[in-house]
Specification:
By secondary structure, the chain is mostly helical. It has one domain. The protein has five helices and no strands. The relative contact order is 0.22.
């Protein structure tokens, strides 16, 4: 991740959005990223704000750019502290960053 000022979603999108193309060639990747997207949404939208009976699926929620950007800052700071480097495959961090990109795309968060 680079240390440039501005919205951290842009850096993540530039780096990981192209990896969403891997959905077409890797069975199970969509499900894995979907699970990570749901976990990110759970972190962003606590149950009390979702309300009773509201779906737990990412597409059933409003994802706010500012909240996702804060999440990404914390997540990528943790990766930097751990001296994480992107592997060739799909580890937890890569799947999580791909899920962030999926949420950015699905909610048009770079156009906001």
């Amino acid at each position: 991740m680079n240390d440039s000022p501005g919205c951290p979603l842009i850096d993540v999108a530039v780096t990981y959005m192209p990896r969403l193309a891997e959905f077409t060639s890797e069975p199970g990747l969509v499900a894995a990223v979907d699970q990570h997207a749901a976990a990110v949404c759970d972190a962003l939208v606590p149950a009390q704000r979702r309300g009773p009976g509201r779906p737990r699926r990412p597409e059933g929620r409003t994802v706010r750019r500012e909240e996702l950007a804060d999440y990404v800052l914390g997540f990528t700071d943790g990766l930097s502290e751990a001296e994480w480097t992107e592997p060739a495959g799909h580890d937890f961090a890569t799947l999580r960053l791909m899920a962030v990109c999926w949420l950015i795309r699905e909610h048009d968060l770079l156009d906001a």
